[in-house]
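One-letter codes give the sequence; backbone shape is given numerically. An example follows:

. . .
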Amino acid sequence: MRNQFVGDVGDFGKYALLNALVGDQLRLGVNWYFNEDEPTSDGCFTNYAHLRDCDPSLYDTLQAIVNSNDRSVAAIQRARILPPHSVYFSSPVPPTRAARNEWNTAAADILAPAEVVFLDPDTGLGKFGTQYVYATELAPYLEAGKTIVIYQHATRTKGGLSEIMRRAGTLLRSFGCQTMPSAFVFRRISVRVYFIVPAQAHVEILATRSSTFLETAWAQERHFEFQEI
């Protein structure tokens, strides 16, 4: 995640989904997988008024942040866009593996109070680079019995969406996931996937909350779709 992505159309869908999944029943933790800004055209799609009816309050809050010229994860946290009891880890992703191991341990410690942990890299699951989540970084959360939600920018990954799903399912199961992973796919401007690995204790509540989300305009208008992995 980079500050320059804040408030774009992907952000709009992302926060709507997270709020729908956790509500006031589960505590959310966010590891931004924060990267310093670099020149890029990403994050420029901030004109999505045609989607406002899906969540008017969220839309208005994000547009206020965009118009304030303070597009930052800090602004998202201050605005309480996500539930007020959420916890955040925003230290930048370090470039070296040794430093990154310490960074991931620190993240797990900060996010320990959360029941659902969202990992928000620039690209998604991968093997090397600050823009990826390493599969080994999931272990502290799985061992602690937490639900994990992982962002994947599908258009930056080789192969079609079905291949992305297949690889992710194989990878997630290889790390001891005891429940069936699933995913929400957001199809506006770019294809974005949100992998969900539910903790056993959260299977029923997440199924209920996901079903409720699928009854909203987000899914009825085909902005989001749900897929088993």
Notes: The two ends are 25 Å apart (CA to CA). The chain has a mean pLDDT of 88. The longest helix spans residues 9-22. Residues 65 and 71 are 6 Å apart (CA to CA).
